[in-house]
Write a structure and sequence with these properties.
The protein is α+β, with helices and mostly antiparallel strands. It has two helices and four strands.
């Protein structure tokens, strides 16, 4: 066992406590349903970017940031096509155990005019 392995559990707990003490007031309320959208892109080189996100009543927090990034990453791995921009419209819910759920529909944003140049 390395020193890093010996302290990793303690470090994880300590990090969670610091995040909660600094940003806890921004955390999404557990079990509350928030309505909103996410606009994200999947580039031709395999990169993805979150262009815009807005959910009524949700502040930018480390938990929301992680949840949105995980949602986008999972979507792209399962159904993403390179060179596309997507628009998710639906709901977001955070659970007490730290998990979350996004429900809604994701559509491709059509950019026919932008491709003519």
């Amino acid at each position: 066992m390395t020193i890093a392995e010996a302290f990793s559990a303690h470090e994880t707990i300590h990090k969670a406590r610091i995040l909660k003490s600094m940003f806890g007031h921004l955390a999404p309320e557990p079990r509350k349903v928030y309505t909103g959208h996410i606009i994200f892109s999947f580039g031709c080189f395999g990169d993805h970017h979150i262009v815009d996100t807005q959910f009524d009543g949700v502040c930018s927090s480390p938990w929301f940031f992680e949840d949105v990034n995980n949602f986008v990453d999972e979507f792209i791995q399962k159904r993403g096509m390179q060179g596309r921009i997507y628009h998710f419209c639906g709901t977001y819910r955070k659970y007490k155990n730290g998990g979350c759920c996004f429900k809604g529909s994701t559509k491709i944003v059509k950019l026919a005019d932008a491709q003519r140049s």
